[in-house]
Each structure stands twice: as structure tokens, then as C-alpha cells.
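Researcher: Next sequence.
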Amino acid sequence: MKLLFSRVFDGVDEMYTLAHNALDKALAEHGEAAPLAMPNTGYFLANHLAYLSKKITTLGQLKESMTEIKAWMPHGNRLDDVFKSGFGTFLAAEVIEACKYINNPEPYNGEYHGHLSDAEVRELGVPLVTGDLPGFTVIIGPAPSDEEAAELIKGYQSRAIFVFLIGGIIDQARRMKLNMGFPVRVVPVGPDIWAVAHIISFVNRAAMIFGAVQPGDREELDDYTFKRIRAFVNAFDPVADIVVGAGAGAIAVTRLLMALGLGDVILCDRQGAIYKGRDNLNSEKVLMAELTNKGMRKGTLADAMKETDVFFGLSAPGLVTQEMVKSMNPDPFIFAMANPVPEIFPEDALAAGAAVVGTGRSDFPNQVNNVLAFPGILRGALDVRARDIDESMKIAAALAIANLVGHDELSPDYIIPKPFDRRVAPAVAAAVAEAAQRSGLARVAVTPDEVAERTKRIIEKD
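Model: Next structure:
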């Protein structure tokens, strides 16, 4: 289902090509025997060590790793393929950055920070893993304006959050004359997106240093970084996604989408787009205005929908026209979930160019119904006697549902299991129970298989 993942995989392919070109150039200039090392670290290329358990010390060894990196970039149609490609992208980014450090321990000449030394990892990592430092953020810019960039950075500083900057936001910070460096907890890492390799390297070394995670142990690495390292990304992007309706359901959906890493969301209510500083916002909408609509888009729902990729409707019937769908980016996804009359009927949305349409109704394809989630979520939470239901448990449920649609089954008319698919509740319950135990919310330990079997027995009784 290329329509679903093409944007992700286009970026993956581009990163691999850039890495391949950078390595070819380095090999032509220095040869395969040329030594390769990041400065002031005992962890070689830390991402290669952490993910592949490989100690890269020469350009020739880095060349050999490219085949394995390519294998980490599958182009399948499952969410697992997207996540795995993310790791491959980090490795490719590390190749690009590592080639800069051949024969030059300071390729950025002090203009950018680049690689973090082991000493800096320990300086930042100790308060991060003990909880004395609330967390860190990576801001990938530029922001819509220099003033907004400065306001965002200062806001994180005021909350004692460490800030890494990548891309155009660094120039914005300089124009606004902001102090940068480790002492003020604002570090300009690099001018290009692949500089994120240095942040991933920091995270992986923190796991190996403080968590005693062994190189190549992906499960332990993911577990440690998920539980102990509080990090998030502010990525400014010209493309946004639309959620119309700003009640409790829409806000909950928006929070989950953002937790899953969606770049930006524009919430709309009866008055149009919600943005920072707009009048007539209740306290919850004021908070959401701080977190969403980074481009400060204003106006009606029709204005907000222009040049976006996905529409989520949790509002009222008939709000969306074919012209509004046509104003979106090519092949948009439309989830019109008002019931019983959706914001736009599937046949109208498809005729206007939508690639995939889902509604809340059982008589149309791709029914989005909360019965897919809540029986399994509650069963999983109860089986481990969870103290709470956090975002990680909700994400686990969402991924469990999505992964029930196999590679060979995916089509525009079938991207989500049907509500009465008996596989759903056991899969969701098992995933939620496992997530609760990972996050420390479970009071008892139960294997996912036990939870799944127990849920199946309950279903069979009915």
C-alpha cells in the first residue's frame, strides 16, 4: 500500500543515498584502510555498536555495514517496517556524520557542536536518568519566525529542559542573540537533519553506560530508553494534519497522534482553527493551542485543510465538501467519524481524490469504532492490575490493532480490522498488559500469551 508509507520511505531512500555518496567520496580520498573514529569516545560509532553490535574502526568496515543498513530499511506495508526503517535511517545518518570526522576532530569548526563526547554524555546523562533533569527536546527548524523560535527555546529553558537544535532554528537563535552551549542547556548540534545521529548516539551511549545495556540487544535498548530517557521532538514542517472537533474525544485523539510522532496537528472547533492567542478558548483548548498548529494557521476549517495530508473528523455531519478535499495534498486520507451522518460520505471523498476513507459506520469500509480498543485495553489493564492507563498502553493497543491487517490484505478498503474480528481483543489485551509492565504501572507480572489466552476464553463463552 504505497500510498500509506511512500512519504516515509522516500525520506529513508534519500538518507541512504546521501550516506552512500558520502562514504564513496571518503573512500576515494582516503581508502578502505583509513582509520575512522568519533572524537573522545570509547564507543566507536555508537549507533552501529548499539544496533548492530559492530565496532567500526575503518572506512572499509563502514563500507561493509552499508549492506546491513539497507536491510534495516524495508519497504513493506506494516508499521513494523516503518519503525525498522527509522533505525536504518539513524544508521545512515551516522555514516554521513562519521565521514566528516575523518582526519578532522572538529569538522564544524566550532560553528556547530556535532558529536557529544563521552564526558558530555555522562554530564547530561546522570541527571537525566536520575530524574533531576526533566528531559530533553530536539528542535528541528526553522520555526515560523525568529521570535517564535526564541520563545520556544526560552520556554523549554524555563522548565529546565535541555534543548538540542538542528537546522534553520540555529540561525534563528543566533539572530535573536540567544546564548548557546552546554552551560545554558541549549546546544546547536548541526545544520542538517542527519545531525540527529549525534542525538541518537547520545541516547544509545547513555543506555550502555548507565543501563549496562549490551551492544546489539535491541529489546533491552528500547526498554531502557523508553523508561529512563525522557525525550521528545519539535519538528517544524510545512505539512500538517487536521482534526476537526475539539471536544474530549478529538483532544484525546490528537494527544495520541502526537505521542505517535505526528509532526503537527491543527485542531478546529466551531470558530475554525485553534491557535495560540485565539479568543474564546477554554483551558483545555488553550493548552492544546500551545502544543499544536505550529504554523499558526488561522481561518475556517476550509482554510485549515489546505495542503494537509490527513483529516480526522470527530464533529458533525456534512462539514466537509469535495472542494475542501481537493484542496488537500494529493491522495489524502479522510476519517469522517461523525455518526450516523459523516462529515463527508465516502463516495464523495473518493471522487474528490481521497486515497483512503474511513467512517464510524458499519456499512462502509474501514469502520473506526471504539469497540476495537476498549475491551482489550481494559482486559489487559485489569489482568496486570495496572495503576493507570498511560500513553504507552494506548499506543501499544493502536499498534496491535494495525498489525492485525496483514501485508497481503492491505488495500484502500481495508486498513483496519472489522469491529467483530475475534483476533482484536486478545491482541490488544496482550499488548496493553505488556506495555503496562514495561512502564512500571502493573502490580502483577503476567505474560502476554497468558493474557491473550484468557481473553480468548472470555470471548468464546459469549
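Model: The domain at 118-193+231-235 is CATH 3.40.50.2030 (Rossmann fold). Residues 1-8 have pLDDT under 50 and may be disordered.
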